[in-house]
Amino acid sequence: MSTPSLDGKVALVTGGTRGIGLAIATALLDTGARVAVTGVDPASLAAAAPRLDAAAARSSSPAGIWSGRVDDLADPDAPARVVGEALTRFGRLDVLFNNAGIAGPSDPWATDVAAWDRVQAINLRAAYFCGRAAALAMKEGGQGGAIVNVSSVAGQIGGAATGPAYVASKAGLIGLTRSMARHFAPFGVRVNCLAPADIDTDMVAGWPAELRQRLTAMTPLGRFGHVDEAAAVACFLASDGASYLTGQTLNVNGGIYMG
Q: What pTM was estimated for this model as a whole?
């Protein structure tokens, strides 16, 4: 799937230093967007920098530049900081990808309150407050915009490899997408959701071979997805090609869930 052009747009990608987020940021730079990314620590940002630099260098537009920020989105003040820095750096904001997320504990009997709350804070609460801050900037800028929340098939089927905290946060993102879409539509802000299944990222790299084989067997296309496949759909949702889509969830899952 080719990546739609977002030439000249300003995009913020939370969790943009690895996995699907890094693939999204790279695809955006390739098409000439200006991109702000967040990472959870300096090491992840440093590891992503060469790939982002290379994408900016081959950008289809002189506007293809990026900036990075290290922040912990579990901090209640972080959403305002990351959106504010993107606005300060680039002067506007057209697209937000709420991609940052953590898996948390997979054992339901070993999940304590602190672990549960951290998963919800990063995966769900931060998505809302980043989205609200971004929508306000888009409203005040008068140009509208697009928000893409990255959920998961786990939120649709109950999770085959992840625990209740992660599943609840990702299911919540699908409902949050619909609510945000209704509230922000009058200001020209579209809000959609991407729900990938098993994508080959560092989050799944440590899964046992037996689990990977079982998940592959459950998937009609018979394989895990690639980050570029998920990124292409995410960028489509943010592009003018999806101008009449809002409140929708697109499933990039090889057919493991059809709904």
A: 0.94
Q: Is the dihedral of CA 41, 131, 117, 214 positive or negative?
A: negative
Only one residue has tokens 């900037």, namely 137
Mean pLDDT of 32-43: 95
- 3-state SS record for 52-88: HHHHHHCCCCCCCCEEEEECCCCCCCHHHHHHHHHHH
Annotated active-site residue 128? The verdict is no
Of residues 128, 166, 244, 257, which has the active-site annotation?
166
Of the chain, the end-to-end C-alpha distance in Å amounts to 21
C-alpha closest to that of 243 among 26, 21, 95: 95
Express each pLDDT in 142-185 by its tens digit: 999 999 999 999 999 998 778 999 999 999 999 999 999 999 99
